[in-house]
């Protein structure tokens, strides 16, 4: 079907785009992350972690007071899914010093890969503690 105002294409685009816009607003309100131009500290931490890993570079080292469980290796978990990738944050939720961020990895060849990253905060710093395939269902209410 050809998209366009005469073919009802704009109506379909609006019907699909509206729930996404509302969902994005709800997540921003739940997280209190500020404006869309300024990502939250939680999202900045995920970007700072995934950008080098996605280029094949080492992951940032956890902070000196990191509260991640011993033996966790989110970098290895991500590399097992794709050697290189771009990423997009889909949604996130936080409770106190624990958080989960759903992201999509975009390898150069192949389909997107849904991942859930678990983070813990120590002071002002968020550390990525684990990565698993799939998204965690997040209820914004």
Secondary-structure element order, as H and E? HHHEEEE
Distance from N terminus to C terminus (CA atoms, Å) equals 37 Å
The helix content is 25-40%
- Largest sheet at a glance? 4 strands, antiparallel
Q: Into which percentage range does the β-strand content fall? A: 25-35%
The chain-level structural class is: alpha+beta
Average residue-wise pLDDT? 80
Shape: globular
User: How many helices in DSSP terms?
Assistant: 3
Strand order of the largest sheet: 1-2-3-4
Give a count of the beta strands, DSSP E runs of length 2 or more.
Answer: 4
Runs in which pLDDT lies below 50 for 5 or more consecutive residues are 1-35
Region (Disordered): 53-73
Protein name: Secreted protein
Organism: Streptomyces toxytricini
Biased composition (Low complexity): 54-71
